[in-house]
Amino acid sequence: MPEALEKVFGIIRGSAVSQNPIIAEGLKGLFNGNGKLLRPGLLLLAAQFGKLREKHYQIAAALEMLHMATLIHDDVIDDSPLRRGLPAIHTRFGRQDAVLIGDFLLSRCFLLTAEYTSPQNALNLARLISIICTMEIEQNNDRFKSNISRRSYLRKIMGKSALLFSLACYAGAYEAKASREICERLRRIGYNIGIAFQIIDDILDYSGNQDSVGKPLGNDITAGLITLPVLCALHLDNSGTLRDIFSRPAFTPEEAKLVFTLVRSSGGVEAAGKYAETYTNRALREISSLPPGKNRDMLNMLTKRLLIREA
Amino acid sequence: MPEALEKVFGIIRGSAVSQNPIIAEGLKGLFNGNGKLLRPGLLLLAAQFGKLREKHYQIAAALEMLHMATLIHDDVIDDSPLRRGLPAIHTRFGRQDAVLIGDFLLSRCFLLTAEYTSPQNALNLARLISIICTMEIEQNNDRFKSNISRRSYLRKIMGKSALLFSLACYAGAYEAKASREICERLRRIGYNIGIAFQIIDDILDYSGNQDSVGKPLGNDITAGLITLPVLCALHLDNSGTLRDIFSRPAFTPEEAKLVFTLVRSSGGVEAAGKYAETYTNRALREISSLPPGKNRDMLNMLTKRLLIREA
Fold it and tell me: Which helix (H) or strand (E) is B256 found in, with range?
């Protein structure tokens, strides 16, 4: 891991710390170096378009902690047993403590933000959490509903994923006192990367390699989550087989398996991939309008590696 | 309700707002005027020992929102069906949305704090949430354990309840630019009120009137929570009947009922009441050292009404 990210890790480990053995044990597993620190990485890269400061590392750490906290609560909500190939917090400590460890981490993220960054960042972070929660609730409410639009799907992943990428890129540039134009461009870059990233994440639940994804495939559909591959498959479903299954209020594990197979065989995965490509290209186009140099090249490379994962 | 608290309510209603129908509906029930706004009330009273400012209302609202958010998560964790006599959020919207509505409210509380108050308040608030979570986890971990000390009980209720009262009193005085001596005195007053308040709350689960408590009695022991009345009853348990039940790793609902009866008949409730009295008297003694006047009289009256509820 590059030195800069090691530093972010160090801040997280120093900040998300507790005398309580359960919290300490739970957090240790989270920050064991298994995470990719994507959002901190983007923030630090964006900061290079201005003047990188000490506080960038703190904000980067806060964003990663926010991300981890939402994952802990997500896993409780979805009852997913694994996270990054390891047992999820609630699998190890029970749902009750998992909710509280998530809250703890969220409070530490705010502490870091309040302590080191501009009040504007604290506001942005608080607003972002409101949006993430709102979109998660919408997603919950839309379980097993096949009549949602692709537009509604995109709105949800914007709120629950893309805005955090967007904030990472924006905050990096903003705190580095980059020009307003660059800040706004980086905000859009982060947004497009985030949308593409989440679409690919949703695709990998159908077509990924279980070992590299770190959790069993088909999780989403078993939980009733209608992601883009399903919506695309429904669109391509001329025989009506898929639509038939969705006409019921919920489906059995066997039906979920059938949906999984149909989504893969119908071209739903490839169609969803086209969307990811569109957003990736938008990000790459915006990146090409940034001031040329090593930072731009690195951002370009990172985006390609991140979003053209299968290539 | 006094005008000042109406104003706090207005800020909460304006701040904890959402376009999402589930969040909107969930929050509406929370802030329907059924709450007593104790913490905001104390904060505003404490502010009168300096200069009451507009932002006091915002901080008061933030503290109440923090309190409500922790209650939502508490009810999920304890699986309590009722809150203030009405169905708890998770009873109405399911556990998943309840976790998220709690997170949403927490983020709104931070938004308000970041927007209107001094950075010091944001820090204090974030630290407080860390402590509340930690103590809730300890409490969870101590379920069905009868060998915990009264000292350990007091430490837990300090973290999960008293510090919020303490922060309310302190922040009120601090933001009003009261003298350091008065700020510190009010911090101690809030602390003692908070400890007494929580002990009384725990007592009421054994001896209260179900209608005024707003939830069924005996909830705590059914959930395995060993509160002060139980610890006092165990201390008074010469026959060993109570200790016998606790020698098992957990107990059945029937055994929980038996514990409930034994705690009431053994004098455990009265002995716990003595503790509440001690902390109430400490608060009243500190209050009597505040500058005399209408504000001191009101704080004195409020404390008596709050903590000598049964009298």
Answer: helix B253-265
Q: Where are the domains of chain A?
A: 3-307
Distance from CA of B238 to the nearest CA of A (A): 34
How do residues B193-204 score in pLDDT, each as one tens digit? 999 999 999 999
- Closest Cα partner for A281 from A304, A255, A259, A252? A304
Q: What is the pLDDT of residue A311?
A: 38
Q: What is the ipTM of this complex?
A: 0.86
Percent of chain A clearing pLDDT 90 (strictly above): 56
What architecture is domain A3-307?
Answer: Orthogonal Bundle (1.10)
The answer to whether the beta carbons of residues A86 and A29 sit under 8 Å apart is: yes
- With CA atoms as reference, the chain B residue closest to A129 would be B107
Question: At residue B141, does pLDDT exceed 50?
Answer: yes
Run of H or E residues at B230: helix B228-235
Contacts of A16 (CB under 8 A, 6+ apart): A27, A30, A31, A65, A104, A105, A108
Q: Which residue of B has its CA nearest to A20?
A: B134
| CA–CA separation, A216 and A222 (whole Å) | 11
Cβ–Cβ of A100/B140 closer than 8 Å? yes
Residue B256 CA, chain-centre distance (Å), reads: 24
Model confidence over B249-265: pLDDT tens digits?
778 888 889 999 999 99
